Amino acid sequence: MILNSFYAFLSSLGFGVLFNIRGKNLIIASIGGGLTWFTYLVSGRLQPSAVFSLFLASLVGSIYSEVMARIYKSPVTLFIICAIIPLVPGGGMYYATLEAVKGNFDASLSKGVVTLFSAGAIAIGIVFVSSLSTIFKKIKK
Amino acid sequence: MHIDDIIHVATDAGKIILENGGETYRVEQTITMICNSYGIQHTESFVTPTGIMVSITNNENKTISLVRRINTRTVNLRKVAMINNLSRQIVENPLSTEEMKKEIDYINNIPPYSHKTTTFFAAGSSGFFTLLFGGNYKDFFVAFLIGALINYFSGFLDDLEVNSFLKNMLGGALAATIALTAASLRLVGNMDTIIIGSIMILVPGISITNAIRDTIAGDLVSGVSRSIEALFVAIAIAAGTSVVFKIWVLLFGGGLI
Question: Given A20, A85, A97, which is nearest B242 (Cβ)?
Fold first, then answer.
């Protein structure tokens, strides 16, 4: 589990370089990737729903990014993109395509719907946190 | 101070953010902040992923406006962060428009990571994604190779100004071809994880994130257009891989491994 999170950290690091993030921000952003994947794995052990795990992981990743963006005075996108990238349901998309090519349209559709739900869960996680952060900003003023 | 200079400086700063992967509201905020710091009270801007429209009114009730078309969109979050910081700084210590122009030019001309560096890290990224999705160390090396090739060829296709649909389709096709070849030569354990890992570097992460953030910020036009952008990239990748699968089955027969 720890090793897997480390892989997620390294993948996010690669992504950070592709997006031209530099210096300290690069490391901080990649740790976000490791953290979300760790949350996803822990949540997967505790309860069976993968979609809910994705939601929790995206929640944790977004909170981490919002906090780090305040501390290091950088745009939130910079952190959130690296934190969320390991969760993106590339696998679901691939299996949906593969089943469609094989001619199993039922399997393809169900994989496709799961992929759509996963993407939705991640999106709701991000929306939830950034909506809350605007409330905090208002209260602080 | 000349009102024309102000609008040009503000719009150029906004343009850099938009071209390099910033959110829509950040562009509008930056333009408004820069204009405010030069004493312009009324600034209206309307930003979409493909263009910026700004209109400002000074104290003598003179109104001018400027439209900028955005043709190239890349991702360079470092420039976004730097322009963002610059616009916050000048609220506290104002710069003249000439100095501001110099700063913006300096930020715009910062070179990105070299092609070799990005190729290496793209390769590493796809390799580690493969491990993350349950591949073994042999899969890692194949995915590493695919990642490097995809990044190298997309740089090459960028020089030819190929559109992103074809670029992603060819990327997906390349990943599927190499993975299928490696699997049929019995070099690797699991073809699926290799393909998933290597198409991850094509996934439109920045469009997805910005689509969500734009939509909740109320920039519905940008939100919808970025979602469509992300959807088209996903379709392109799926089309690329599935065409290769289909051709493979037609040529060599049998089921997919």
Answer: A97
